[in-house]
Amino acid sequence: MSRTILVTGGGTGIGRACAHHFAAQGEQVIVTGRRPGPLAEAAAHDGVRALECDHTDPAALTRLLAALPERIDVLVNNAGGNTDFDADGEQDLAAYARDFRANLDANLVGAALTTRALDGRLAAGGAVVHIGSIAADRGAGSYGAAKAGLAAWNTDLAAALGPRDVTANVVSPGYVAGTEFFRDRLSADRRTGLVAATALGRAGVPADVAGAVAFLASPAARHITGQVLNVNGGAHHTR
Ligand SMILES: NC(=O)c1ccc[n+]([C@@H]2O[C@H](COP(=O)([O-])OP(=O)(O)OC[C@H]3O[C@@H](n4cnc5c(N)ncnc54)[C@H](OP(=O)(O)O)[C@@H]3O)[C@@H](O)[C@H]2O)c1
Questions:
Q1: Mind listing the domains of the chain with CATH numbers?
Q2: How far is 117 from 123, CA to CA, in rounded Å?
């Protein structure tokens, strides 16, 4: 029986690769995002259903619920990114507060709200997988703080969902090329440095992350919960 899988931010990059992976396995996949353009593209080419939603907005999430099936087997909280790339450069304290909160909203509050909204629909045997970041360990201002918070919050989520046989884990990528994450602002030197930091000598690609997400959502991973799985080519080591 095919599963129903929601991939937030699934119109581009890592989310789109996750959605593509699941759809290719015959799963029913729904992707979300704020911009109609990428969603239409994904719906036309990836065999997925696409719905507009800003995951930081409770009202938008309530509207999304009305359009979703009653049962969700897998939730991939992928929507996010470093909102500092879109900051206007204002330096005063009010701007600092706004920009700091923007990263917390985009990468932590959005995932928490989405999971809360879907809580009653998460089916036994299901999985929640969040996309974290190497920035949680290496830092990157409020973006890294938000991703670290996501992993910390997931610990409680795993405990809450475990008795219902729903797992909750974080996939934490290093540098992944071929997404809109860096806008057009990644310098050649910085890119070279990010690749050189890996043991494998290459950037990640969205399919690398999708493979890890698919594993955590698979029957092979039913005793894995509350964990962070690093997918970074060896750029950050853990024991
Ligand atoms: N690329 C990397 O090197 C890297 C490394 C570590 C972690 N990550 C994480 O991986 C995830 C995916 O990023 P990516 O690299 O694939 O970049 P991306 O191509 O920019 O994908 C982010 C997606 O999330 C959507 N999104 C952002 N905020 C949203 C919101 N509030 N509501 C709904 N959708 C939202 C975007 O669509 P709209 O703008 O249309 O809403 C976009 O489709 C992010 O959580 C990011 O932090 C990326």
A1: 4-231 (3.40.50.720)
A2: 14
